[in-house]
Each structure stands twice: as C-alpha cells, then as structure tokens.
From TrEMBL:
Sequence intervals crossing the membrane: none
InterPro entries given in the database record: Glyco_trans_2-like (IPR001173), Nucleotide-diphossugar_trans (IPR029044), Trfase_2_rSAM/seldom_assoc (IPR026461)
Name the record gives this protein: Glycosyltransferase
Domain (Glycosyltransferase 2-like) ranges: 20-107
GO cellular component entries: plasma membrane
Xref: NCBIfam families: glyco_like_mftF
Amino acid sequence: MQQLPGGRLLSSSNPAPRLSLIMPMLNEAAGIQAALTLLQPLRETGVEIILVDGGSSDESVALATGLADRILISEPGRARQMNLGAQHAHSPVLLFLHADTQLPPGAENAAINSVLDALKTRHWGRFDIRLAGKSRWLPVISQLMNLRSRLSGIATGDQAIFVRRDTFFAAGSFPDQPLMEDIELSKRLKNIEPPASLATQVVSSGRRWDQFGAFPTICLMWRLRYRYWRGVNATQLAKEYRNAR
C-alpha cells in the first residue's frame, strides 16, 4: 500500500470525522475529478474522503490529487480497495461510494445526515438507486433493483452501502473475491439485522446498460447471481462476466 500526498491527515488535536467516505477507483480519468469536486463541500462538514486506486493506467490519480483526504494505492480488486480504505478510516461510520455513483445531486449533506441518523439505531444500510443514461428502460430497471433489495435485504455496491465500522469488521469486511463482493457482504450483515433502506436516491451510471443493451445486461446479471447462489465460484463468474462484455 502506498499513500500519496495532497490530502489532509488527522493529528491528535483534530476531532475524528463524522463519516469516512471510501471510493474505489480504476481508470476513471474521464469522470473522477468531477465526481470528487461534487464532494468537496462535505469535507468542510467533517466528512473524510478516502480514495483507493487499484492500479490505474490513466491519469486518474493525478486528477484526483488534492481532492481527497487520502489517496491510497492498493492491489487491484474492488473488495481489496474498499477494505484498505476501511482500515485507514478515522470515523466510526463508513460509506462506500463507487466512482460512477453520486450522492443525491444538490442534497449531498442531507444524504450524509440521513446515514448518520439511520446508524444511530441500525448497523448498516443502503440507498435507493436511480440509473442515469440513454436507455428508456433505466427507470424501470432502477425500480426493480430497489424493489428486489427491499424484498431480499441484499444491497449492491451501486446503492452506496453504509455501515458502522465495528460492524463491518465484525462481519469480516468485503470478501477477497473479484465479483459479488457486495452481495456476500450484504448476506453477512443481514445475519446481524436487515438493512436500513433509505428512499433517497443515489445516481449511478447506466453506461453498461447503454453499451451492452438493457435486456442482455439484465439477463447476464441475473444469470450470474443465480449461479452464485447455486455455489459457483466468484472467480469463474468474473471470467464469464468479462467474456460476456
């Protein structure tokens, strides 16, 4: 692990941040600067932003420098990246936000307050999601994702999972696997209690649905989840996912 300069580090005289926002990143040069710029007002309210790069080959790290409290360089793998960020977080509250997902536009601080309020009585939770893109099916897909999550108690990483730090580590953190790490963590956390489901919507990129088609992508994701439920190894599923794309 390597930490890059350009962020604020806590000293013994500084209070702990009210929330640590952890963002994994890999080759996000096209959008990382804009994504982090939207989060800058939160830093002034006591939110710590930890960016964890998985070995980007583009200018992602250079563009992000100065826009996060910490930039960590990790071994590749989103689960490993998010676990590393959690290990270096100073707050007792963690929020995992993908680089292509935004907190509710114009209401970022209200969203953080909702997380903190929810975790006063609950151990973990997630947001509803709205997919943004060109396909006319994305609103329907978003509604189905939210309904599925409410019925199953399982959250995906796109829904911005938040959790108490001690609960996260008690559940074993994200499993070190290349796919379905969010599903597996949700299953572990669900054994503690069902998630707090916030109706507030984060906005996530619908680029894979736009690029590969709505119905082929839906069929692919459901097939992979079904096979994972049947016990197929996540490494094998990741290969199938890459080949299908």
